[in-house]
Amino acid sequence: MIAHRFPETLLAELPGNGPWHIEPVGEQLANRTWLVRSAEYQFFAKQFRYEEVFARDLQQVLALEYYVAEQHLGPEIIYVDTQHKIVVYEHLPNSIHELVTEHETKLRILARAVAGIHRLAPRVSQWSLRDRLYTYCDSLTETHPVIASNLRRDLKDYSHLLSHWEAGPQVFCHLDLSMDHLFLNPHLRIIDWEYAGYSHPAFDVAMTVVMNDLFEDEIEVFLEEFNNHAPFQVTRDELPDWIRLVALVNRIWFKVQENLQKEAV
After folding, report:
1. Cα–Cα distance measured from residue 265 to residue 253, given in angstroms and rounded to the nearest whole number
2. One digit per residue, pLDDT tens: the chain, 265 residues?
3. pTM to 2 decimals?
4. Pair 30, 158 in one domain
5. I want to staple 78 with a disulfide (CB 3.0 to 4.6 A). Which of 65, 82, 88, 152 is the partner?
6. What angle do CA 134, 212, 70 make, to 5 degrees?
7. What's the CA dihedral at 163, 168, 171, 177 to 10 degrees?
8. H or E stretch including 86?
């Protein structure tokens, strides 16, 4: 098991020669990430952790990431270390923040990105939001039984929204799309696909609104652009209920993160 260090034996599998400089660029419990660079090359490496807790399957994630790379929408996968669950990607320069200064233009690029993803049709396993949230609660039962019980009660209160999610329509969604995940090289490229899957389009829109902390006027711009390009329309009136569901999802997810943090100390 790797602690916080990148396994230097993996460097021999990468293109080019050293010396290599390895820099941690994020410390999330779900993943560990590094920037790996030499004078000639620059890569981004991610170690996937706690797959069972977060209801992820690395092989399915890889299949999806190969797909989006083939669509020229995601970064190329350079190497996979299955033993340590580390994936090395090409490093994408030119983030949207570096190249685009006008905020409204960024919003419209983000909206078109969400709409474009909704038109993709990769062959990936179906999943259940309801089941995933109850799996998160189950992971809290042993250490925090009261919190787990309260969250399950909240899930019952949101059962009608979960049923709406299940009733569809279902489109392919990123489900974690921040502006920080957008790059222009020169066309649009997107990173961090590990939570992507088929979902209700309004849930994905609500997740994007929350992820990017959009205000009312920003939501109007976003929805206008999104609805001009998306296969399914999302109205402003229906969005508050979906944002409430996203808030519950995030509350449960961060409780799981907090619990893992305490266990790791």
Report:
1. 19
2. 344 688 888 999 999 888 999 999 876 667 889 999 999 999 999 998 877 777 678 889 999 999 999 999 999 999 999 989 999 999 999 999 999 999 999 999 999 999 999 999 999 989 999 999 999 999 999 889 999 999 999 999 999 999 999 999 999 999 999 999 999 988 999 999 999 999 999 999 999 999 999 999 999 999 999 999 999 999 999 999 999 999 999 999 999 988 876 665 5
3. 0.92
4. no
5. 88
6. 80
7. -40
8. strand 86-90
